[in-house]
Amino acid sequence: MLEIPTPSSLSALSNPVANSLEHLSLLDSHSNVDCTFITAAELERFVNLQSLALDFSEFTAEMARVLASTNRVPLHRLSLMIHSASLSLKSLNTMPQDEDWKALVRHSANLRVYMIAFDVKSDDMLTVLKPGIPLERIHFDSSITSVSGAVVDLISRQYDKFLTHFIVMKDAIDMLHFPDLSNNRNEDPLVLLTWKCTRLSVLAIHGYTVWAHNLIAIARLRGSDLKVLEVTEESIDFDPEELAYQDVDPVHNLTEQVSLGLGRSWHAVMDIESLCVFTDPARHFYQEMQNFSKGI
């Protein structure tokens, strides 16, 4: 993997070196969102790539077709960073369509995709998330926008066979009014996600309302297969009608019921500063992306 890739350093690589590279990350030095690191024509030289990480705005339909070419090694890991800043500068019209994703998967049957979205509007995410993407991990981080229940519903329907990691967080400006993904619906999108995505093993939530009874349902649905359940204390809310019929401390009861569902001791995250996933999501993504790319 190149340590400090730049457009000029990539184009200056000899063909034998480009042909030998198996892992390529074009994210760490991507400080200029209007800079194109690599074109589809240049990517043709990297015929042995097994993992690739880049900004989603650069991942065009033409690039997907290059990666689907039969004269190259199948791609196993694709990590994509979706940022509102880059989307505002580059049109979504050039992104891979569903047929492009399906062609790529036909050539790379073991391909898995990891996405992180920074302040991306839900309407844009509904456009980006094509059914043919073998999406294994997705991480939403926002301070301005909020993920909608419609996006979570779409993910649970389209990626139920692949999804293992789901992280959703929002910087809490108003600590008293977190967005509620359920939006007063009878069926909570996070509960449905947990039910439909039978490979889900990591779930982390901060800055969105998680109702206590839904958190208990999530724990019971996934049980010990849910290896990580991280929910910040301030994100948890209790139904006033249910509290009226409880004689026990609601927090103690929640902790006990979730622990029973998971088959291990559990408690809400009290100190958000202790978790990199909530305090420094970009660094968390880079670390996880490296582990993701190595797990071929």
Reconstruct the topology from this structure.
Elements: H1 7-12, H2 15-20, E1 23-25, H3 40-43, E2 51-55, H4 61-67, E3 77-83, H5 84-89, H6 98-107, E4 112-118, H7 122-128, E5 135-142, H8 149-158, E6 165-170, H9 189-196, E7 202-206, E8 210-211, H10 212-222, E9 228-231, E10 236-237, H11 240-243, H12 250-262, H13 276-279, H14 281-294
Parallel strand pairs: 1-2, 2-3, 3-4, 4-5, 5-6, 6-7, 7-9, 8-10
Would you write up a description of this structure?
The chain is an alpha/beta fold. It is 37% helix and 17% strand. It is built from 14 helices and ten strands. The protein has helices spanning 7-12, 15-20, 40-43, 61-67, 84-89, 98-107, 122-128, 149-158, 189-196, 212-222, 240-243, 250-262, 276-279, 281-294, and strands at 23-25, 51-55, 77-83, 112-118, 135-142, 165-170, 202-206, 210-211, 228-231, 236-237. The strands form two sheets. It has an eight-stranded parallel beta sheet. A two-stranded parallel sheet has the order 8-10. Helix 8 (149-158) packs parallel to helix 9 and helix 10 packs parallel to helix 12 (250-262). The longest helix is centred in the last third of the chain and has 14 residues, at 281-294. The radius of gyration is 20 Å and the shape is elongated.
